Each structure stands twice: as structure tokens, then as C-alpha cells.
């Protein structure tokens, strides 16, 4: 309906205008990195176009900006409720804190120190992937642990992530499989991205983790695809069907068999000395890895023990994250330039 005194614009004309405008602003934002309008203004244009197309479906063109990401409502990503919450980990910052954690675990298991799995802590963004009948059905970010964001089209652009599972040696694919892991940007992709930005005179990204997080949460999966992300999966949260794993070490092996990328640097140890040896090994060597890692995650191996240990309100009692202390760096100040601005 036209407002009093104004003549309603032909919807086809307005839709074409909006399409041109949105394309222009998307180009300014993504390609030229000199946006002329705010994100909110951009979203308002898209929403107007979506509303118009919903009202007049014949106006939808295959190349409309609303069609870029299959069916994703523009403006914000759809939210997904996690069937099993994604918890975070308790941290240990010293060998003493680590030993205290092992002692607590041992006490809770009636004096038996269980086998422990040491894994590198990947510095990325945690994701949860659901496979139904062997096919990737949904990918979600952690969000607040209970509700995350649906990033399925974006995750599908990550070449490491299988869209369909391979059959494991047990000859089985679970009916429903939920796996968890970390999406990250390899150091090489990060360096190449920043080099290209520098050459184009664009502002540089601060670190791979931030770019990985930002890239995964874009509404336009084409941009995600150009960012060259990778992933490591490290846990099986749900296995519906016969033949599920009984130990964390077995889960990692099964994930590999199902064709997931799994970090190969891991060890099963029997006591705190074993964990400390793993920590020592990777303290400096981690800098030579092609991805960023900020510590080691130690997990109780047997899933039955994990179940027995349970969780507090925030953390599982069966795992701990050991964080390497930040390394000291020396910066030499070679000069100070004083500038006088307009004010
Ligand atoms: S296990 C119950 N294993 O670190 C939580 N987490 O600080 C189980 N992370 O939220 C998490 N590498 O995003 C686990 N090998 C690894 C990991 C890992 C990185 C992240 C994960 C988690 C955060 C906790």
C-alpha cells in the first residue's frame, strides 16, 4: 500500500534498484574494502529485498543477492540448539596444577590413575558437525554452549571436512553421528591472505584465530571458501547405531577411518610424568607446526571413566587444558615519530 501522498513504486522496479544497490555495496565491502554504508544499513536493504521477493516470488532472479547462500536468512545466521551442550575446559598453567588435576581424578576413581590421552590444543573455533546416514546434515558453532549458529554452507566449503563418510573397519556407519572439533586457518593461508591484503593496501588481520572465526560466520559462503580454512576433529559426541567407541584414543582412530582430519600428534600416557614429557616435547616444537596451538588437552581415555567422573556446572572433570605460558619477546624501539594532527 502506498502511503498517503506518495505513489507506490512498481515492485519490479524497486527490486531491480535494490539488487543493484546491494551488489554495489557488497562489492565495496568485500572486494574494495571501503564500505559506504553501515552493516545495519546494508542489512536493511537486503531485508527489504527479501520481503519484496517473498511478496512477489516472480521477482526472484537466480542471481539475486538473496540467493547467494542457499536459503540462509540474511542479517544473522540461524541458531541451532545443541542436543549435547558444548562445554569448555578447566585450565592448568603449571606442572603443579596439572599434577593436582591428576590427583583429583585418581581420588575420584578410588585411587586408580587412568590412562590419559594428550592432544594438542588447536587454536581455532570449535564446531559441531552432525552426519545423518553418513551425510553432513548440519554444522554449528559453539555459541554459548547451548545454542550455536548454523554455519552449514560455510563448513561445506572447507575441503578437509567430508561431506560423506567412509565406512570404518567395523563396516559400520552410525545412523547419526555428531563430531566436534576445531576449524582453524593454517599459518600459510593466513600469511598469504595478509600478503594479498598488504599489496592491495588493505588493513591486515591480527591473527589466524580471529580470521577463522570471522570467516566461518560470514553470510556469504563464497567468501568463506576463499579463506582456505582447515579443520581437526577430536571427539565423538553422539554415535547412534552399533559399534560406538569405548575410549577417546579409539574415537580418534575411528574419526580417521571415517575420513575426518585428525591431528596426528597425540599420545596415550599412564601418569603425570607421561603428560609432562608430552608437554616438554611440544613446548618449542609447536612453533614449527603449520597451525597455531596454544597448549595441550589431557583427557581420561576410557569413556566409562569419563562418565563416572562427570562434570561440574561448567567443565567436564575428565579433561583439562594445559596452557603454555606466553613467550617473552623483546622489541627494540628504533625511533619515535611525533605527528601533529589537525586538532
Ligand atoms: S576437547 C568438553 N580437544 O579448546 C570440552 N578441545 O579451552 C571438550 N580445543 O572448547 C573439548 N583443541 O574449542 C578438546 N584437542 C582438543 C582441542 C580442544 C582445541 C578447544 C575447544 C574447547 C577449548 C577449551
What report would you give on this structure?
By secondary structure, this protein is of the alpha+beta class. 34% of the residues lie in helices and 20% in strands. It is built from ten helices and eleven strands. It has a five-stranded mixed β-sheet with strand order 2-11-10-3-9. A four-stranded antiparallel β-sheet has the order 5-4-7-8. Strands 1-6 form a two-stranded antiparallel ribbon. Strand 4 (125-132) and strand 5 form a beta hairpin. Helix 1 (11-31) runs antiparallel to helix 2. The longest helix is centred in the first third of the chain and has 21 residues, at 11-31. The chain is globular, with a radius of gyration of 25 Å. The relative contact order is 0.15. Bound molecules: 2-(butylsulfanyl)adenosine (IVH).
Amino acid at each position: 500500500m502506498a502511503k498517503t501522498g506518495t505513489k507506490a513504486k512498481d515492485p519490479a522496479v524497486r527490486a531491480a534498484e535494490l539488487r543493484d544497490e546491494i551488489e554495489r555495496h557488497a562489492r565495496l565491502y568485500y572486494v574494495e574494502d571501503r564500505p559506504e554504508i553501515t552493516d545495519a544499513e546494508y542489512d536493511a536493504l537486503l531485508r527489504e529485498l527479501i520481503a519484496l521477493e517473498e511478496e512477489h516470488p516472480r521477482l526472484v532472479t537466480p542471481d539475486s543477492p538473496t540467493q547467494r547462500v542457499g536459503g540462509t536468512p540474511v542479517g544473522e545466521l540461524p541458531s541451532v540448539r545443541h542436543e549435547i551442550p558444548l562445554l569448555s575446559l578447566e585450565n592448568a598453567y603449571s606442572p603443579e596444577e596439572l599434577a593436582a588435576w591428576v590427583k583429583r581424578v585418581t581420588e575420584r576413581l578410588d585411587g586408580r590413575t587412568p590412562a590419559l590421552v594428550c592432544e594438542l590444543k588447536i587454536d581455532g573455533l570449535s564446531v559441531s558437525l552432525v552426519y545423518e546416514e553418513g551425510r553432513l546434515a548440519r554444522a554449528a558453532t559453539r555459541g554459548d554452549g547451548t545454542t550455536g549458529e548454523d554455519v552449514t554452507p560455510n563448513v561445506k566449503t572447507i575441503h578437509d571436512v567430508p561431506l560423506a563418510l567412509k565406512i570404518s573397519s567395523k563396516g559400520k556407519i552410525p545412523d547419526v553421528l555428531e563430531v566436534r572439533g576445531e576449524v582453524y586457518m593454517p599459518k600459510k593461508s593466513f600469511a598469504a591472505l595478509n600478503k594479498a591484503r598488504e599489496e592491495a593496501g588493505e588493513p591486515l588481520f591480527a591473527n589466524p584465530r580471529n580470521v577463522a572465526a570471522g570467516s566461518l560466520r560470514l553470510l556469504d559462503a563464497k567468501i568463506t571458501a576463499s579463506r582456505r580454512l582447515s579443520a581437526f576433529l577430536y571427539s565423538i559426541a553422539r554415535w547412534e547405531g552399533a559399534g560406538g567407541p569405548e575410549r577417546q584414543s579409539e574415537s580418534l582412530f575411528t574419526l580417521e577411518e571415517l575420513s575426518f582430519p585428525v591431528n596426528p600428534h597425540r599420545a596415550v600416557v599412564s601418569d603425570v610424568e607421561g603428560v609432562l614429557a608430552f608437554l616438554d616435547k611440544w613446548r618449542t616444537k609447536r612453533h614449527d607446526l603449520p597451525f597455531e596451538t596454544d597448549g595441550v588437552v589431557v583427557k581420561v581415555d576410557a569413556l566409562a571413566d569419563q562418565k563416572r567422573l562427570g562434570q561440574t556446572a561448567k567443565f567436564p572433570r575428565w579433561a583439562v587444558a594445559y596452557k603454555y605460558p606466553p613467550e617473552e619477546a623483546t622489541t627494540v624501539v628504533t625511533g619515535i615519530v611525533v605527528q601533529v594532527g589537525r586538532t
